[in-house]
Design goal:
single chain, alpha+beta, Lysozyme-like, 2 domains, 10-stranded mixed beta sheet, 4 helices
Length: about 400
């Protein structure tokens, strides 16, 4: 997944310009409601004792949003629309934001308009490619992690198909997390619930549960979708800031979760697991960490796989050793549940023409692969991708191979 942070050079005249600056109190409407023309609307998850987050949708009606408006504080944003995911193909979206603490404006950053993460047709499609209301399909850019912000400017240049209907900017406040009575983490080591089919089972790493990172379970689809046995783990990076406090990782995960569900219309967060710079492993999509939960992380190859996202940007930034250790531990354990050799290869079949391979094509992939091995993307970054051979070796050693 790319949450783009790339500064832009000058661009031609634009179709949309939205600058939000002065304070404005926004009305709240139930989660899942759609923003129409006119006033902005806040789609807010059911708050727990610690407070849930919200997604504020500001319609870019008539090609322009008047200046002098704000949605209050937010920490992640993206641009969405009604229509297919590729409706802005060939176009561009760029944004800049105002720091809520200093009042300074960032440079321009481009958002990816051709989504590379997402559900394949089938298990996720009933919820993931259709809007909650009216059967309208949704599209959205990759999100941008901004940190605490209170103003945003947006410029959209449409592609050959023209601007899609329902263009809007989605502003995510991750909140303080919903308190839950569930366990905060799953302890490391063997567990009675582990589903094992072979002898090369690596120890289970400690995993921070969804309750541990404060997931608002009321906003996701309540049921779970499973795939066949996991044969490949795809490594991603979130492309957010690399130098963050690990105590802030739950906020970032909550924001990505809310964007995936409330803005993109997916049934849950796309990744099965996430790992922060300190090596802490987090449960992603709900349904059971030791079960083959169908994710939305590698278009065309979400079947029989799991997606693990390294929190950070590793294009030039060197991935910290604790992060690499966390990736190796979760990959070794997850693959060991089905006796897959973490240093081996397996045959996968593409499920989408949008991947690197036409739908139905058989492909030999490493059991620990990078996102770029299956999709035209830089993910997981030029600094992390070359470390995958070492990661495979470490994971295989954990499996006792």
């Amino acid at each position: 997944m790319r949450i783009s942070l790339r500064a832009l050079r000058g661009r031609p005249p634009v179709v949309l310009l939205a600058v939000l600056a002065a304070a404005l109190t926004l009305p709240s409407i139930p989660a899942g409601a759609r923003a129409g023309g006119g006033a902005p609307a806040a789609r807010t998850g059911t708050p727990g004792a610690a407070g849930g987050g919200s997604v504020t949708s500001l319609p870019l009606t008539g090609g322009r949003l008047p200046a002098g408006r704000t949605a209050g504080r937010f920490e992640l944003l993206g641009v969405g629309w009604d229509g297919p995911a590729r409706a802005l193909a060939g176009g561009s979206v760029r944004v800049r934001t105002r720091d809520a603490v200093t009042g300074g404006w960032s440079g321009w950053h481009e958002l990816e308009t051709d989504g590379e993460d997402g559900p394949d047709a089938g298990a996720d499609a009933a919820f993931g490619t259709a809007a909650v209301a009216g059967g309208t399909r949704r599209g959205a850019t990759a999100p941008l992690w901004t940190g605490p912000s209170d103003g945003v400017a947006v410029e959209v240049t449409p592609g050959p198909a023209g601007p899609p209907p329902g263009l809007r900017v989605e502003l995510v406040d991750p909140g303080e997390g919903v308190r839950s009575a569930g366990p905060r983490s799953a302890a490391a080591g063997p567990a009675a619930g582990d589903r094992r089919s072979g002898h090369h089972q690596a120890p289970r790493p400690e995993i921070v549960t969804r309750a541990g990172w404060g997931a608002d379970e009321s906003i996701r689809e309540p049921d779970f979708v499973y795939t066949g046995p996991v044969r490949t783990v795809f490594v991603h990076h979130t492309a957010t800031a690399t130098e963050y406090a690990c105590s802030d990782a739950p906020r970032l995960i909550r924001a990505v979760y809310q964007y995936h569900v409330q803005s993109n219309g997916w049934r849950d967060i796309g990744y099965n697991f996430l790992v922060d710079r300190c090596g802490t492993v987090y449960e992603g999509r709900a349904g059971g960490t030791d079960l083959p939960v169908h994710g939305a992380h590698t278009l065309g190859f979400n079947t029989d796989s799991a997606g693990v996202a390294a929190i950070g940007t590793f294009v030039t930034d060197v991935p910290p050793e604790p992060l690499l250790t966390g990736l190796a531990r979760i990959a070794a354990w997850k693959l060991g549940l089905t006796d897959q050799d973490a240093a081996g290869s397996t045959r996968m079949v593409s499920g989408s023409d949008g991947s690197l391979y036409p739908a139905g094509t058989g492909v030999d992939l490493r059991t620990i692969s990078g996102h770029r091995d299956a999709f035209n993307t830089e993910c997981p970054g030029d600094a992390l991708y070359p470390r995958l051979p070492d990661l495979r070796t470490a994971a295989a050693a954990l499996q006792g191979r």
